[in-house]
Write a structure and sequence with these properties.
The chain is α/β, with parallel strands linked by helices and 105 residues long. It contains 5 helices and 4 strands. It is globular and about 35 Å long. The two termini are 15 Å apart.
Length: 105
């Protein structure tokens, strides 16, 4: 079982009003851990985003949210994370961090 790294304190200043989290994880325990750390996320399953709008909308909504971010924590070796990190750095001058999901660092 993957344990969510405690990295929220590394992403931006304390005045941030929310921390949004995106993942393709289905485990309820994983999402409980995310919520316990104060992260928010769009639950595309609960909202039926795919069924209501089509296959492009879940990632599109996540990308739009991330495009306004001042910080991003992504996983190493993920193309989605790399593109999102670059967007946060280049568009918003934000802070980014890559996490190795194999060893939790």
């Amino acid at each position: 079982m993957f344990s969510l790294p405690r990295v929220g304190h590394l992403v931006g200043p304390a005045w941030l009003s929310s921390k949004n989290f995106s993942a393709d994880e289905n485990s309820p325990d994983f999402w409980d851990d995310v919520k316990s750390q104060g992260w928010l996320h769009i639950n595309h399953t609960q909202e039926q985003t795919l069924e209501r709008f089509g296959e492009w909308y879940p990632p599109l909504i996540d990308v739009v949210i991330q495009s306004m971010a001042v910080g991003f924590v992504g996983t190493e070796d993920s193309t989605f994370s790399l593109v999102s990190q670059r967007r946060v750095e280049d568009w918003n001058g934000g802070l980014v961090l890559s996490v190795n999901v194999q060893n939790g660092t």
